[in-house]
């Protein structure tokens, strides 16, 4: 990603870093007063790197109204930004591009009753932010989040999702929510095991699990994660008769490649 010109970024402070597993971490940074974003968007974060900079995109995990900015990073072997994150500690300086971007915004759907959020790996991050916005709970009758990871130890947000039941802005709506964890390389008693998201859609397993009937009038799909998953899920949904949402041509599907 090209370096942002100097005037286009601010220098922020790392407030905390939490290493959940050797490759999964969350961290928070200071939020400039002027920094605005919509839940579902991503920031560009950077570091000075020798003579230049390194910049990468990270979906914002925090709510729009949060005082700080939180992120979730999957550390990639031999990845340049991952190496910076692996060394990062509280008090370090991190660069924040002044503009948040992205179109994975549930408010873009003008209609629909049931919102199905489909994520793999770090693709859960924008949905964690979206789920802290009361407007989305008022807007939809039912909300479901599907998070696919390879192994159960990678499901690090179970407690955070459960805590929405006591979130002051969300608790009254929490009964509308379903969380379906999926472990593709492991069978457990409490996750859907062994099948990837496109297969779960093709075989109608997700609808059965939720007790919903997916249909173009009511169901809206938001998809984020592994680009191959996004591509395969889009094709599956198109084959099932759904269409991409465009502002001038409303449909049922919104997508974002999570890397
Ligand atoms: C719109 C957008 C939002 C993003 N949001 C996040 C986020 O919230 N959290 C996050 O960890 N990353 C996110 N990424 C990816 C992130 O920008 C970096 O690519 C990633 O942190 C790895 O950086 P790197 O320099 O270590 O390796 P890179 O050289 O950037 O990547 C090396 C390879 O690692 C794989 N890879 C990259 N990112 C991931 C990932 N997240 N999960 C699995 N495999 C990956 C790809 O195959 C890639 O080619 C996002 C990317 C985009 C485009
Ligand atoms: N997780 C691992 O065991 C593993 C192993 C080797 C390397 N890596 C590397 O580690 C890094 C992070 O990986 P990650 O596991 O967080 O992210 P990831 O590889 O994107 O996997 C996250 C989830 O997405 C699923 N997925 C991958 N491709 C898909 C597709 N085309 N359609 C539907 N679902 C799909 C995975 O299923 P599957 O489990 O079926 O792939 C898994 O459930 C990446 O660089 C990856 O290449 C991971």
Describe the structure.
The protein is an alpha/beta fold. The protein has two domains: 6-97, Translation factors (Elongation Factor Tu (Ef-tu), domain 3, Beta Barrel); 106-257, Nucleotide-binding domain of ferredoxin-NADP reductase (FNR) module (Rossmann fold, 3-Layer(aba) Sandwich), CATH 3.40.50.80. Helix content is 19%, strand content 32%. It contains seven helices and twelve strands. It has helices at residues 80-87, 125-130, 134-139, 158-162, 197-202, 205-210, 227-239, and strands at 9-21, 24-30, 42-49, 52-59, 68-74, 93-97, 114-120, 142-149, 177-183, 192-193, 219-225, 253-257. The strands form two sheets. A six-stranded antiparallel β-sheet has the order 4-3-6-1-2-5, covered by helices on one side. It has a six-stranded parallel β-sheet with strand order 10-9-8-7-11-12. A hairpin with a 2-residue loop joins β3 and β4 (52-59). The longest helix has 13 residues, at 227-239. It is globular. It starts with 8 loop residues before the first strand and ends with a strand. The mean pLDDT is 96. Bound molecules: flavin-adenine dinucleotide (FAD) and NADP nicotinamide-adenine-dinucleotide phosphate. NADP nicotinamide-adenine-dinucleotide phosphate is lined by residues 74, 76, 120-121, 148-150, 184-185, 196-198, 225-226, 228-229, 232. InterPro entries: FAD-bd_FR_type, FNR_bac, FNR_nucleotide-bd, FNR_type-1, OxRdtase_FAD/NAD-bd, Riboflavin_synthase-like_b-brl. This is ferredoxin--NADP(+) reductase. It catalyses: 2 reduced [2Fe-2S]-[ferredoxin] + NADP(+) + H(+) = 2 oxidized [2Fe-2S]-[ferredoxin] + NADPH. It holds the Pfam family NAD_binding_1. Keywords: Nucleotide-binding.
């Amino acid at each position: 990603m090209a370096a942002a010109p100097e005037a286009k970024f601010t220098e922020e402070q790392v407030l905390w870093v939490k290493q959940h597993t050797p490759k999964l971490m969350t961290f928070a940074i200071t939020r400039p007063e002027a920094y605005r974003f919509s839940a579902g968007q991503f920031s560009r974060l950077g570091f000075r790197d020798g003579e230049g900079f390194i910049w990468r995109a990270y979906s914002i995990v925090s709510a729009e109204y949060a005082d700080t900015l939180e992120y979730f990073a999957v550390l990639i072997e031999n990845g340049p930004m991952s190496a910076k994150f692996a060394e990062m500690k509280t008090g370090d300086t991190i660069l924040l591009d002044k503009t948040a971007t992205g179109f994975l915004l549930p408010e873009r759907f003008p209609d629909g009753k049931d919102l199905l959020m489909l994520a793999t790996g770090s693709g859960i991050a924008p949905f964690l932010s979206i789920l802290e916005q009361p407007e989305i709970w008022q807007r939809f009758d039912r909300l479901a989040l599907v998070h696919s990871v390879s192994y159960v130890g990678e499901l690090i947000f179970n407690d955070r999702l459960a805590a929405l039941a006591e979130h002051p802005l969300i608790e009254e709506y929490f009964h509308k929510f379903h969380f379906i964890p999926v472990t593709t390389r492991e069978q457990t008693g409490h996750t859907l095991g062994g099948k990837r998201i496109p297969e779960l859609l093709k075989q109608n397993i997700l609808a059965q699990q939720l007790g919903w009937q997916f249909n173009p009038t009511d169901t809206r799909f938001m998809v984020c994660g592994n680009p191959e998953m996004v591509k395969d899920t889009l094709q599956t949904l198109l084959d099932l008769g759904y269409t991409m949402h465009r502002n001038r041509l409303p449909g049922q599907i919104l997508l974002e490649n999570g890397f």
